[in-house]
Every structure is written in structure tokens, then in C-alpha cells.
Amino acid sequence: MTTEPTPVTDSPFRAEPGGRDLAPQFVLPLVVRIERAAPPARTDALETAARAVLVLLADERSTGQGEWAEAVRDWQDARIRKVVRRARGAEWRRAEALDGITVTGKTAEVRVFPPVPLDGWPKELARLQVSGTDLDDPEPPAGADRSGPVLWMSPEVGMSAGKAMAQAGHGAQLAWWELTGEQRAAWRAAGFPLAVRTADPADWARLTGSGLPVVRDAGFTEIAPGSCTVVADHPALR
Asked: 153: closest CA among 220, 207, 193, 112?
């Protein structure tokens, strides 16, 4: 599989089983640094995770004959799974020693790794906890700048911060797939600016019906299968 837009009929983000379920299953590991004394703000963690996914997809190691390219292709040919784990102190230092990319936000640090088989996590990552990623925003985030990309989170589905980070990554990936090569290059050159915000309940039905990319969760964890979780609102796709 290439990184061209995924056909709607074979979307990796839907509840119904399909051909993607027959392929070997991979997962994209993300690790968020959560130190006891200085946890990141929730919105910044979501935005940093989304950017981390884009940084990995755009990295030369993930394309062509790059060293991660085969793993990325195998991952994209199956269900698109992302799992966010947390680390601090020595755990974070061990995670940083593994092959991957650390992306830094205002308060958040997220390290993304090339995809691994669903049951083949490196031991340094497998021992990290998934739970405990409940983060808060010290202040309500400012309104989103609609002149840039916005990942609108569902106002109807409650999620832990770790789950929401994975969903924001899904939304960023769907937007990436829909863009042309020139549009991707421009977004990358700008440093992948984006905002993650919870949509106004009164606006959610319009967003999900607007034709913009929508993440419909497969229901593996936390939420019901088929739940609409994110709308990827990139200016080039409006």
C-alpha cells in the first residue's frame, strides 16, 4: 500500500470487518512523557501526538526504500492502530534510546516509533502503562484558528487523554492521505501546524456531514464501535 488516500469502502477507521482485518496487524506506538511534577497540558499532548504521527509519515525513513518503509506499509495495509503509553524518568530515557522520533510541544513530549506487530512490542515499551494518561488543561484552550488545520474532537464521546491522543493521530493521518504531494510538502515545511479542539455540540452534525475526513472508531477500547471521534478540518480539504 502507498500513502495515497485510502478508499472510503476500505477505510481502516470503521467498525465493520473487511479485508484489512485479514492482513497481519500492526500498531504504531506512541509514548507521552508524564513526569509527576510537570505533566503536560491535555490539549498540547493531543496536538503533539497528532504532529508526531505526521512527522513519522513524512520522514524519509518511512517512504520509498527507507528503513521503516516496509513496516509503515504493512501497518497501513491493515487496521490503523495507535496505542499511547506513558513514561517518566528512567522509563522515558529507555524509550528515547529506541529507534524513533521525539516531537515536542509547549508542555508535551511525545515519542513515536515505527510500527510493530500487534504482539511484538519491544520490551522497553511493552512494560509501560497505558492507563494513567488522564491530563487536564490548566486553562481552557483559546479558540481555534480556522485559517489552519483543526482536528475537531467529538463533544459526545468521553475519552481518556491517551485514547484522545490516538484519535487525534488518526485524524491527522486521514487529512495527510487526502492531501496532494504539494499540499503535504507545504504542511511539512510549515512544521505541521494544527489545533485540536472539542467541537461545539450544535456544530458536530454539520462537521460530520461536511465531507471532511471523519474517524469512526473500530471500538477496540473505551468507546462503542462506529463512534465518530474526530473530524479532520484542513483548509485544503474544505
From this structure: 207
